[in-house]
């Protein structure tokens, strides 16, 4: 992959260290539920999730074999990742994260939490408050958000009148990725459409876009994984307890005799969807060493300094 789609010297080095010319990298551009869409030097490719033994997310760089591009062999170490409140990685390898909230639906507590998560992600958070055109006086609201997010740039914008939009262009840099995060209806897609200079590219059926100037944006609906009936901030203690009762230590909870989980699901003690979510988190956790790269540590350290600087400013 050339210096496009966010591929940079860091990824090139990691790739070259472990893979020869029989392999090629690709970037996950969409998670379609049962399959992934990814882009390689050869174009867009769809891969069935049932063939994938890893849990890459949108933005991840993955390794394919040139002669079998329907299999994901590995996920490259990430330079950043954003986790939902219940610990699930939603998006990877972005430089900036836009936390989008409409002024008509302002939730300062939620922004505060997202900003904290973002500082942890390894990327720099920016808060974008959309729909200024629907608010008579939004200055107090903006001030409130600034207090809740010390050290973070907060931009009120309108995708209709274009008010404030020019401030956002400075983040669109060649080969840099911006993750755009927010709930349904906050105005993420509309914003992305406006950021795409010529405006004639409609945002649909992908979550990662290459803009004409070479920058990339990822459209992430924060709640899309949270549609089932489990509680947010669920700690899964009950499932942990049940898992410990399986006969075998290495039980995969699929077919083993004496599996306490299968029994609990059959008896209705635990919800199957919730258990699947639990498994997914466990899997992500076992892959977490992927994140422990010097780059990621460096980003986190820088963020801690920026964060503390912001705090200090607030105290003056
Ligand atoms: N008045 C006004 N309406 C806006 C603005 N931005 C977005 N909208 C409208 O808000 C609605 C939701 O916008 P979307 O861009 O689809 O929101 P989204 O965040 O992409 O939502 P999902 O794709 O469901 O996650 C649409 O009807 C937009 O036209 C804005 O700045 N001003
Ligand atoms: Mg959208
Ligand atoms: Zn079991």
Describe what this molecule looks like in 3D.
- By secondary structure, this protein is an alpha/beta fold.
- Among the domains are: 9-75, OB fold (Dihydrolipoamide Acetyltransferase, E2P) (Beta Barrel), CATH 2.40.50; 90-225, 3-Layer(aba) Sandwich (Rossmann fold), CATH 3.40.50.300.
- The chain is built from eight helices and 13 strands.
- It has helices spanning 9-18, 108-121, 139-148, 188-195, 237-243, 260-267, 272-286, 294-315; strands at residues 23-31, 35-40, 43-48, 61-65, 74-75, 81-83, 89-92, 96-102, 124-130, 153-156, 177-182, 208-210, 216-221.
- The chain has a six-stranded mixed β-sheet with strand order 10-9-8-11-13-12, sandwiched between helices.
- The protein is globular, with a radius of gyration of 21 Å.
- Mean pLDDT is 84; it is low at 225-233.
- Bound molecules: guanosine-5'-triphosphate, magnesium ion and zinc ion.
- Zinc ion (ZN) binds next to helix 6.
